[in-house]
Amino acid sequence: MLLVVALSASAQGFQGSESKDLMKKPLDAEANLPPSPYASKPLPELKGVVSWKTLADVKTVKQKDRFTPEFGKSVAVLDKKEVKLQGFMMPLDMGEKQARFILAALPPTCSYCMPGGPEQMVEVQTKTPVKYGFEPIVVSGRFTVLRDDSMGLYYRLTDAVAVTTPR
Question: 137-149 burial by CB neighbour count: b if 16+ within 10 A, else e?
Fold first, then answer.
């Protein structure tokens, strides 16, 4: 009973003027992201670069008590091969350069949201850190299809390096 009274008093105190002041302040997290010219259209396909359409060749199927990815032939043949991918960097660590990041098919539009499903993201681990930017990049590395990733990812690129390609 004493715990209920204490929690009730605590909740009433939180709903006082401090919480009302917090409610008045807008959250400007999205204001920090510049508008992207790529938000309304997909990236152009590049010769020699695996397209996001190819990576979308996957279905989610229920197996017993969970859902797992079932990859189409166009994706399965890429497993453990050297490939190039194009996309937008979503940093996973603080800093100007990133050694591990998510490469996404779409530009981020919100600081807290993932821009797409697992077929539109690849975890990238680089040989040397890559400078973060808002423009699309091309990376090359060893591609792995993930059939049972604990984080829900479908793809990983390891020993990756940033490459320049003609646009």
Answer: bbbbbebbbbeeb
Q: How far apart, in whole angstroms, are the C-alpha atoms of residue 103 and residue 122? A: 5
Supply the DSSP symbol for 119: G
> Which residue has tokens 């320049």?
164
Quick one: pLDDT at residue 10? 39
Number of Cα atoms under 13 Å in the Cβ half of residue 94? 0
- Please enumerate in sequence order all residues whose Cβ is within 8 A of that of 60, keeping only pairs 6 or more positions apart, or say none: 67, 68, 69, 70
The correct CATH number of 33-163 out of 2.60.120, 2.40.50, 2.20.70, 1.10.490 is 2.40.50
pLDDT at site 156: 97
Q: Is the pTM of this model over 0.85?
A: no
- In Å, what is the CA distance from 130 to each residue of 44, 59, 160? 22, 32, 10
